[in-house]
Amino acid sequence: MSELNHASAIYPGTFDPMTNGHTDLILRAARVFDRVVVAIAQSPHKSPVFSLPDRIDLAEQVLSEHALSNVEVCGFDNLLANFVVEQGAGVILRGLRAVSDFEYEFQLASMNRHLIKEVETMFMTPDEEHGFISSTLVKEVARLNGDVSEFVHPLVATALAAHYGEST
């Protein structure tokens, strides 16, 4: 295995949809790491609302407003451990919103450590104003015609409204 770069982080997820909490973590990670890859998982078992190309496009549009030269967005459909090695990254970045997230995230980190011993998992918490936001909750509010504008970028709110048949 080639040497992995610990100044390079992979931030994986389905990002279905990308929330302001995700964006907050990406902006903050961009200040810590030389390179941040927002790795959008195909995740067909989760039955995403948006296709992988649509999720990539939305993420790129949202992040383009911040002119982050060290952040890139890409999709993947293989084992995260393999993707991390392919990218040459040395860190997997994960967000923790609440203590309830920790058990699952700890299991993921342990499995990834077993699969790729050279890679570290680092956890970041979102800003307090975003700590309760999850993609699942945002989709549920949007599905029931609620206002999600405070939780997602306007482009994402428009995409959700279009998907669920409402105008913004």
Description:
The protein is α/β, with parallel strands linked by helices and 168 residues long. It has a single domain (5-130), classed as HUPs (Rossmann fold), CATH 3.40.50. The chain is built from six helices and five strands, in the order βαβαβαβαβαα. α2 links the parallel β2 and β3 (71-76). The longest helix is centred in the middle third of the chain and has 17 residues, at 99-115. It starts with a strand and ends with a helix. The mean pLDDT is 92.
Structure characteristics:
globular; single chain; alpha/beta
**CATH superfamily placement:** HUPs
CATH architecture: 3-Layer(aba) Sandwich
Assign the CATH class: Alpha Beta
Report the span from N to C terminus. Answer: 49 Å
**Largest sheet composition:** 5 strands, parallel
Helix/strand/pairing class, anyone? alpha/beta
Mean pLDDT comes to: 92
The number of helices is: 6
How many separate domains?
Answer: 1
Residue ranges: pLDDT <50 for 5 or more in a row? Answer: none
Q: Give the helix proportion (percent range).
A: 40-55%
Q: Please give the number of β-strands.
A: 5
- For the largest sheet, list the strands in their spatial order: 3-2-1-4-5
CATH topology, anyone?
Rossmann fold
Strand content is 15-25%
Using only C-alpha atoms, the radius of gyration works out to: 16 Å
SSE sequence, one letter per element? EHEHEHEHEHH
Shape: globular
Q: Give the quaternary arrangement of the chains.
A: single chain
